[in-house]
Write a structure and sequence with these properties.
The complex is a heterodimer.
Chain A: H1 8-25, E1 55-60, E2 69-75, E3 78-84, H2 97-100, H3 102-106, E4 116-119, E5 122-125, H4 128-139, E6 147-151, H5 156-169, E7 174-176, H6 183-193, E8 199-200, E9 207-211, H7 222-232, E10 243-247, H8 253-257, E11 260-262, H9 269-282, H10 289-295, H11 300-307, H12 311-323, E12 327-331, H13 333-336, H14 341-354, E13 362-363, H15 380-391, E14 397-401, H16 405-408, H17 415-420, E15 424-429, H18 434-437, E16 441-444, E17 453-455, E18 471-477, H19 491-502, H20 504-507, H21 513-523, H22 536-546, E19 548-552, E20 581-586, H23 600-604, E21 617-620, H24 622-628, E22 634-639, E23 644-651, E24 659-663, E25 702-712
Parallel strand pairs in A: 6-7, 6-14, 9-10, 9-12, 10-11, 14-15, 15-16, 20-24, 21-23
Antiparallel strand pairs in A: 1-2, 2-3, 4-5, 4-16, 8-13, 17-18, 18-19, 20-25, 21-24, 22-23, 22-25
Helix pairs in contact in A: 5-19, 6-14, 9-11, 9-12, 9-14, 11-12
Chain B: H1 2-19, H2 22-25, H3 47-51, H4 63-66, H5 81-88, H6 98-109, H7 129-139, H8 144-152, H9 169-176, E1 180-181, E2 189-190, H10 196-199
Antiparallel strand pairs in B: 1-2
Helix pairs in contact in B: 5-6
The chains are: A alpha/beta, B mainly alpha.
């Protein structure tokens, strides 16, 4: 057997060494690739461009509605990355992951590239002239009342043009819709403080009690609030290190950062606020009579019973608020997504009055003196109005821009069917999303990095100092590079072309939206902070290079007269035994309402709490899961009265045992290769329950039941086991199984 | 014994296998073999006419008049056509030469000239022109033809450029190990950086 000892393994060894020798000998000149590629070469080049060195252009982020000011890093004619603009009072040089992904919206391979027309089941491409001609043709003989335009929240000169276009058509049907809208907060603030968006000063507060406001993740202007939060947490601050208490049934990113996280029974946030007021009154804080009349019923015992928060916890919280002023109490979407959401928000706002925070940590903001460019905010009730009109066959021609209601409307609204009733639907589209697929004519848009626009933020952050209650700003969005796809157009350019069809003479001087915008800005030079004698060209160039135009707004003032009149909180209803659990649709920091779902960085960046990627999940409390026999990775069916979805179960101690939570924004069946078929769309299964005062969709009012499907998967997630060993083989924490953890008792 | 024989067979096999490639594995520095391929360019640009010595009919233009980014940036850069036209619009004597006609064709069509890369390093290598020009041209005050020529060869005698040096890691390192004067007015010396990260990042 000696000869045969030189077996296969030895043979492979020789081959292996030989292979290595070949690889080593390959390190000669062969790796230089002369003459294969072309050099970056130009015909003309501005003197500030040096190949391999970046230039920065100031612009405005378009990924969410906060309107952060950004700088785009541009090298050799390509935008590579966005950074925050350090001179911005909103984001102060910082940016979030959602904003960073803006370049993926810009370079996205699934962007619509040319105008498309639906003929029956098929589509065909057509030229812009034909597309715009077709719109003109369809509008001829259509009355203004039969035309509707649905958009997201808007502001600036694009909005001004849209307003002019609607006037030219004689239509008053501009519907402004946001799938996730703080509409309840706006209304409650208006009542309590006299303005819908006062400025919150987390950085000035000693204690922040947030009723479900995920201000570090997805609430209003998260990058701005994160900056404030960083100040708030500094021990070197004159006020000392701040304490954050988060009260919500499902732990958000902000909840995970809090010193104390309190799992309240879903929907009883208002009760808890009144309970705290009651305890504060007993502790010697003077409570105005009208508030005392409402809060006196809510003793610590009763509140504890209704909210699932122990009386001791409530007393501790009241003591903390009494001891440290000023504090700040915030109401967020988790407290507002109910039929009595406005009542919850009103009760929470009372706390700020009782604690004397109004004027200290709730500051006045300015309003914009130019109504045409002032922000128009969206809400669900306008979608309902549009839907009702469509169902009644009132609208013949419908335009949509920047919204995706076919995806985000609850199935029970039958929006898709009603949308189909309109004769001619035009979608201004970036992607072939669900709404664009249901349209007849699709007009491809420039990305936010190719287009001109001005943005006036709804939440008006202001620099420190006197006169901040009169500070207003307009931000510029300017192209950072040539178009990626040559046949797309800016929304302003399209609206201008449409306006020229109606009012050729008035808009003749403007070749494109750029010239319209330049003219409009220069006409108001003095109001926008310039001097009458300034040279137009110099003023315009300086404005663009800064990207931010501060101007004098109408100074506002906050009123500390939040009244308890008419405040009535319903007793917590007993759960329907056939649908025993409360569904809390979660708005995650990266996915939001799903409009950016086709940007792979957002799909692959782990959710901060579950670390799950590329899929939806349902968060279930381990106690509830144990009762139902569910383990992590079980595919479960979540059924409501209005629909059902299937997704993977994730056992999560940071959720109230009576609630389950599924993130929104996943589950597209169109839009593009990265979004389609990833996860499940929770919007569709929501019950059509609305806040009684504002008509906003009550996101958290859907009751569900959960059943196992029998399938099980391994959840793709970043996290390892809690307390896992590190390199030194030392346990860093005692491992506690998920069903033993009770986060509300910690800290 | 069996084991010894087996290892011996393996070792001998390995030796022969490796030695058959030894000639490729150890390139010597700067031999005629290092000269790169002749690369066909869209316009046969006469470097000798622009940069050559006056006695050879050249105009002795500094390399960095056209490759203007070399002192400011990682890349030396190809001048935009604008720069060529800047001079050539007033040089009537050569206007009807075929190469100049071709140049004006590109200019009139506003099309960039698709020049091919002559020194194309792999993407995992970052070579920085600026550092070398600043050190040897500005600080040591050496003649530009020597500074550029050390890597690019005697370009002033070429028409289109051709690679003259191996431009391999060993070749780069051989120079980085030498002591060079820190500046023209100093007798201090220092050698080039030797960190992997300097070029591979």
């Amino acid at each position: 057997m000696t000869e045969n000892d030189f077996n296969r393994r030895d043979f492979l060894k020789v081959l292996g060494w030989g292979g290595a020798a070949v690889a080593l000998s390959g390190c000669g000149n062969t790796s230089i690739q002369d003459g294969q590629e072309t050099v970056t070469s130009y015909v003309t080049l501005p003197s500030f461009v040096v190949p391999s060195i970046s230039n920065y252009f100031n612009s405005t982020c378009a990924q969410c509605d906060a309107g952060c000011n950004i700088m785009g890093r541009v090298r050799e004619g390509r935008v590579l990355k966005a950074e925050g603009n350090p001179n911005s009072p909103i984001n102060r040089g910082r940016m979030c992951g959602l904003g960073q992904s803006g370049v993926q919206a810009h370079y996205n391979p699934d962007r619509v590239r040319e105008p498309l027309l639906r003929t029956g089941d098929k589509g065909e491409t057509l030229t812009w002239d034909k597309a715009l001609g077709l719109i003109s043709e369809k509008l001829n003989g259509t009355k203004g009342a039969e035309i509707a335009f649905v958009t997201g929240g808007m502001s600036g000169h694009v909005q001004a043009l849209l307003g002019n276009y609607m006037d030219a058509l004689g239509s008053k049907n501009h519907f402004s819709y946001e799938a996730i809208s703080p509409a309840v907060l706006r209304a409650a603030n208006k009542k309590a403080y006299g303005m819908s968006m006062p400025r919150y000063r987390i950085d000035k507060a000693k204690v922040v009690v947030s009723f479900g406001a995920d201000f570090l993740g997805a609430w209003i202007s998260p990058v701005h609030f994160s900056q404030q939060y960083a100040q708030f947490r500094k021990g070197t601050r004159p006020e000392g290190r701040g304490v954050l208490v988060q009260i919500e049934p499902k732990m958000t990113l902000t909840g995970a950062n809090a010193d104390r996280w309190i799992a309240v029974r879903p929907g009883t946030e208002g009760v808890l606020a009144l309970g705290i007021i009651n305890v504060l009154g007993k502790a010697g804080i003077s409570i105005p009579a009208d508030i005392a009349a409402v809060s006196k019923e809510y003793t610590a015992e009763r509140t504890s019973k209704e909210t699932d928060v122990s009386a001791e916890q409530i007393e501790k919280l009241a003591a903390l608020l009494k001891e440290r002023t000023p504090s700040l109490v915030l109401a967020g979407s988790a407290a507002e997504g109910y039929a009595h959401g406005s009542q919850n928000a009103a009760a929470i706002a009372l706390l700020n009055r009782v604690l004397g925070n109004v004027g200290k940590t709730v500051e006045a903001s300015a309003s914009v003196p130019f109504p045409q460019i002032a922000p128009t905010v969206g809400n669900r009730s306008s979608l309902n109005a549009l839907n009702d009109g469509l169902a009644a066959g009132k609208y013949k021609v419908v335009f949509s821009y920047g919204v995706n209601p076919v995806f985000s409307a609850p199935a029970s609204m039958k929006f898709k069917d009603n949308f189909a009733k309109a004769d001619f639907k035009v979608a201004f589209a970036h992607y072939m999303d669900e709404t664009a697929l249901a349209a007849d004519l699709i007009l491809p848009l420039d990305s936010a990095m190719e287009d001109w626009a001005t943005v006036v933020p709804e939440y008006m952050a202001a620099p420190e100092g006197a006169g901040s209650n009169a500070y207003a700003q307009m931000s510029f969005r300017q192209p950072m590079m040539e178009k990626v796809f040559p046949d797309t157009r800016g929304v302003g350019d399209i609206l201008l072309a449409l306006l020229k069809q109606r009012k050729a003479d008035e808009y003749k001087p403007f070749d494109d939206f750029y010239s319209y915008l330049r003219n409009a800005v220069l006409k108001n030079k003095v109001a926008l902070g310039g001097k009458a004698g300034d040279d137009d060209e110099v003023f315009w160039n300086e404005t663009l290079s800064k990207g931010i135009v501060p101007f004098k707004g109408i100074a506002g003032s906050v009123s500390a007269k939040a009244s308890a009149a008419g405040l009535k909180l319903p007793a917590a209803a007993d759960a329907d035994p056939s649908y025993p659990l409360r569904l809390i649709p979660a708005v995650s920091a990266s996915m939001r309402d799903g409009r950016n779902a086709n940007e792979p960085w957002l799909q692959e960046s782990p959710d901060p709490l579950t670390t799950s990627v590329w899929d939806s999940w349902v968060e279930i409390n381990p106690k509830t899961a144990a009762k139902l026999g569910i383990v992590e990775g079980d595919i479960v069916e979540i059924a409501s009265r209005s629909g059902s979805i299937k997704t993977q179960a994730y056992l999560f101690p940071g959720i109230h045992p009576d609630a389950v939570s599924v993130p929104v924004g996943y589950g597209h069946d169109a839009m593009g290769r990265y979004a389609r078929g990833v996860g499940a769309n929770v919007f569709g299964m929501l019950d059509a329950v609305y806040d009684k005062e504002t008509g906003e969709l009550a996101l958290n009012e859907t009751s569900v039941k959960i059943s196992k499907t029998g399938q099980r998967v391994i959840i793709v997630k970043e996290e390892g086991p809690a307390g896992g060993s590190q390199a030194g083989k030392q346990k860093i924490a005692v491992q506690v199984s998920a069903d033993k953890v009770d986060l509300s008792k910690e800290v | 014994m069996k084991c010894f024989l087996r290892s011996l067979t393996l070792l001998v096999g390995l030796f022969f296998y490796a030695s058959s490639h030894a000639a490729d594995a150890l390139p010597t520095l700067t031999t005629p073999d290092d000269v790169g391929p002749v690369i066909e360019q869209p316009i046969e640009f006469p470097h000798f006419r622009h940069a050559g010595d006056a006695k050879d009919g050249g105009m002795q233009i500094n390399c960095m008049y056209c490759h203007t980014y070399a002192r400011r940036s990682m890349v030396a850069g190809i001048p935009p056509i604008q720069k060529c036209i800047g001079c050539h619009q007033s040089i009537e004597s050569v206007r009807d030469k075929p190469r100049i006609q071709k140049l004006f064709e590109y200019w009139d069509a506003k099309k960039a000239i698709p020049w091919k890369k002559v020194h194309d390093l792999p993407d995992f290598v970052r070579f920085n022109h600026e550092r070398h020009i600043q050190r040897f041209y500005f600080q040591q005050d050496r003649p530009y033809q020597e500074v550029c020529g050390y890597c690019h060869g005697n370009v002033k005698a070429m028409t289109v450029a051709q690679r003259q040096k191996p431009i391999t890691m060993g070749w780069c390192a051989s120079c980085h190990q030498k002591d060079h004067l820190v500046s023209a007015n100093s007798s201090k010396t220092g050698h080039g950086p030797n960190d992997c990260f300097t070029c591979h990042k």
